[in-house]
Design brief:
286 residues; Rossmann fold; seven-stranded parallel β-sheet; 13 helices; 54% helix
């Protein structure tokens, strides 16, 4: 029987590429997205290549839609093998000048969405005594960056959440946990984040403005001079996620490029894949 995988945020980028790649590698894919009107390109590929992908509506900020999708999968397959928490949103703005609505939005999408999706699949994985939860975080989940503190905060939160889970559900219920940590990605995610930041530059005013201008200039310089080194394609990141899904003993953490590895080196050199800290916590608490 094929393993099935529930992937969030599959309308573009890493999620889109992952849905196609997993299906081509003998997985049954439940490709979910908030807005089904964005499913046209994925549907075309499904039909052209006869891929085993079912597209479902799921908004990670709305628990009812998560419950509905999980129940649909259980009714059809009786199991959920892999949850791939991919949905996320970029955000760059000073804490002082971000609105309450913006702070809640980025937290809901990037952190609470992961929690809610994980919460819904855990009972089924626990009962079946196996499962895998893969979450796309970011190098921003390990290293804080200017004007990205609210975004980084949500990714740090996912890292802590996943690490905490890994300390007890892996041994007790054979549920494997991994954080996939990309650097820059040349997808709609990156473009929309930069465009949103640039168009709302008026929020970086006063004493923040010269710092913000240096930040944006640095982003543009990296994009122009080091694109191949800094930025990966969605397919490259999806390929790492597939390898994790096929790994019988996956790491807790994995960076998806040399640039990402180098960028996080000061944070990760003592325990690159997170296995040492999980073992230490188990020894200390369990």
């Amino acid at each position: 029987m094929k393993k099935n995988v529930l992937i969030t945020g599959t309308s573009t980028g890493v999620g889109f590429e992952s849905a196609v790649l997993f299906a081509k590698n003998n997985f049954k894919v439940y490709a979910t997205m908030r807005n089904l009107s964005k499913a046209i390109e994925l549907q075309k590929i499904i039909e052209k290549e006869s891929l085993d992908i079912e597209i479902l509506e799921l908004d990670v900020t709305k628990v009812a839609t998560i419950k509905t999708v999980v129940e649909t999968i259980i009714e059809k397959d009786g199991k959920i093998d892999i949850l791939f928490n991919n949905a996320g949103a970029g955000f760059a703005k000073t804490t002082e000048q971000a609105t309450e609505a913006e702070i809640r939005w980025v937290t809901d999408v990037n952190y609470l969405g992961v929690v809610y999706c994980t919460q819904e699949v855990l009972p089924y994985m626990r009962k079946q005594k196996y499962g895998q939860i893969i979450s796309v975080t970011s190098v921003g989940g390990l290293v804080g960056q200017p004007f990205n503190e609210l975004y980084c905060g949500t990714k740090f939160a996912v890292e802590g959440f996943m690490e905490g889970l890994a300390t007890y559900v892996s041994d007790a219920f054979n549920i494997k946990i991994t954080c996939v940590e990309p650097g820059g990605i040349t997808t709609e995610f990156m473009n929309s984040a930069i465009e949103k930041t640039a168009s709302e530059g008026q929020f970086a005013t006063g004493e923040y403005l010269p710092i913000f201008e240096r930040y944006m200039a640095g982003n543009q310089k990296r994009a122009n001079e080091s694109k191949e080194q800094v930025y990966q394609t969605g397919l490259e990141v999806a390929t790492v996620a597939l390898a994790i899904a096929q790994n019988e003993n996956p790491p807790l953490r994995i960076r998806t490029s040399k640039w990402a590895e180098d960028f996080c080196d000061l944070k990760t050199q003592a325990d690159p894949d997170g296995t040492k800290i999980v073992a230490q916590i188990k020894d200390s608490f369990l």
